[in-house]
Predict the 3D structure of the following.
Amino acid sequence: MSGILEDLLEIVGSRASSSIVERRCYAADASQIEGLPDYVVRPKSTNEVSRILRLCSRHQVPVTPRGAGTGLSGGASPVKGGLVLDMSSMNRIIDIDIANLQVIVEPGVVQERLNLALKPYGFFFPPDPGSSAVCTIGGMISNNSSGMRCVKYGTTRSYVLDLEAVLADGRVIHTGSKVLKSAAGYDLTRLFTGSEGTLGVITRAGLKIVPLPRSRRLVLACFEDAVIAGQAVLMVFSSGITPSACEILDKTTCQVLKRCDPKLAIPDDGDLILFEVDGPENSTVKECLHIAEICSPLALDVRVAKSQQEMDAIWAARRLVGAAVAKIDPAKTRIYMGEDVGVPMSQIPALIKRVQHITAKLDIPAMKYGHIGDGNLHIALFIDVMNEDQWEKLRIAADRIHKAALELGGTVSTEHGIGLARAQYMPEQVGQEALQVMRSIKRALDPNGILNPGKLGL
Amino acid sequence: MSLDLRAINRCVRCGNCRSVCPVFEELGWESANTRGRIMVMRGLADGLKADADVLDSLNSCTTCGICTDNCPAGANVPDLIESARGHLVSQGIMTGAQERLSRYIFESGNTFGEQNERAAWLRGRSRLKEKSDFVYFVGCMNSYRYTETAARTYDLLRCFGVTLLPEEQCCGSPLLRTGFDARKLVNANVRQMKQIGARTIITGCAGCYTTLKKNYPASFRVVSVPEFLAEHISELNLKPLDLTVTYHDPCHLGRHNKIYEQPRQVIEAVCKLAEMKDNRQNARCCGGGGGVRSGYRDLSLRMARRRLKDVPEGVNCIVTSCPLCIRNLRDAGAGSSVIDLVDLVSIAAGQR
């Protein structure tokens, strides 16, 4: 495979490497899926990407696009070797166009950097994964990422107005335009969003932005069990309030957070729901009281966070909860498998029960937390990674969790993507016929199958 | 020295380190980021050959520890990096810069390979006491490069009865940070400390401070000059100065040892303090630590130049308390505007 290195060096100069060290460093994202690439390239322009793809098409070299490599499904793991296209150097914010309520960015812009740049204008880009300090917009679009605030604001898909994408043969297309709505033909923007780099490489994106809310408030309601918590959530939503975040942290999760930071102001004797509301000052005050009233008869304890600092501390702890378990037990590592299931909102209590049953039977400790407001439950399983038996139990647990979600009419991935980690569930998830349609689309755009091969169950 | 797989496995590859690693910010390759470096360590454990690229990946870390502070999984990165370097050094695998630095230290007892008298800066100052509770540990940088700072520190500390080690050796920090065994130097210094009857060791170098705390017998109380000055501020007779300065937190004083407030107390007792854009636990590394300055000068200075962009407008000087930071920030273009905390205090004490 030494064939194309010289050509790559000619296109991007020293931003191409075939060193074994770099190849190892780009072998995986944050999932357990690995594959060794032959080259790693860090392009800086659409033109470079186009020339690279033309070259790879000609030589039939697989191309795996990658943002910050924070993905949890192996989407950026080069399982068929070939070339990893690290897009994180294309990181310019090209235009902040407040008059048209949008921004134009390159795919390597980090979510948090974008929001820092928008803040002085009083605007923000709402999708907020736990990895927002690191993850790139390109990666978010490719996985249709979301996060805590999507219960009110919608997922990344709701914000993409236009994409510039390079196709497998090097052609460059735009999928949309600057208008906020359009009825012109197939919606390629939505097709490319969530396509995990299998249809083209995103080199630029036009994104809708929204005004920052004037205030945010947080209600903490603690329940004896998740079933009662689920009822309270349904009652809040049906009362006409749409929280800007609605998170569940089960008892184990609360205990872990508390042990990481004993000063953290959360209860740890039950399952906790965090309701955040945002909007004008007087409306958030009113909505908070209303939520507290609804929850009171059902909850062990309800209170409103006292200060901005208290809210920030709780959210910061929540964002990083995934990996925090290792801080408490150095022999245990959180492994991201079976971590991203979702079910219709009313089925959340049933899902929680099923997960409890599965993990108890296999004797694997589990934290359960997630975006209960949109039916998304993150399950953190932790094991001793030096123990092969525990790995086997983990694989069985993850499989059973995925199947449980499907049986409850849910999804194996709400926001982390399919990649290879969940590819085996695609036939059941979308149905054989729909999967055939996806394969036809893939063949039409990438006849040689060089773009992120091995992913999405295609 | 073998690789500690348990410690390596704490990394879950979440990539949070990408948002803070100052080396990654300059170079952009995963091999120059903590997550990549840990993948390289895993590679070494599975038989990856330690070539020049492996050395560059592991040796380009300044061990500033900002990723450790931001690691949700609690990986202790400076320890991991140092032990991986040690793993390679114990097999004779090292860069030319590592080989040169270790040879200088082993041959001359200092990082520069200097043959001159280490305490030449004492000049006409009175003879040292043979017995004392307090020892001022000068360090290689101030002994040979910033001798005026050494003399000023000594002058400030003398009234509290400090003495020097008669034959001070390098504390061992550069060896330990880059993977070598420093026991010979540690033992030589400890023997003298015991002979003097010292119980408290005071140092003005952040690198020496970490080493004295971490790698020397715990029976000694180790105090940094900023801590000592803060403790004795009322006894120093300082006159206020009409200056505004900023303070650069050295990684080895700040993040590694959580000494944030004492240097600020001292500065505020003397003049006005305007903070740098990133400060305290978020302070950027000057780029000089962990052997990066000696191994990768250009990279090191690029980080220093970026650090200088955090300096607020309108300050008279940049104060810090680590001679390695001083040297790197000066060389990156800040020149004589970078001074040691002791230099500032000496002006206020009317010493010059």
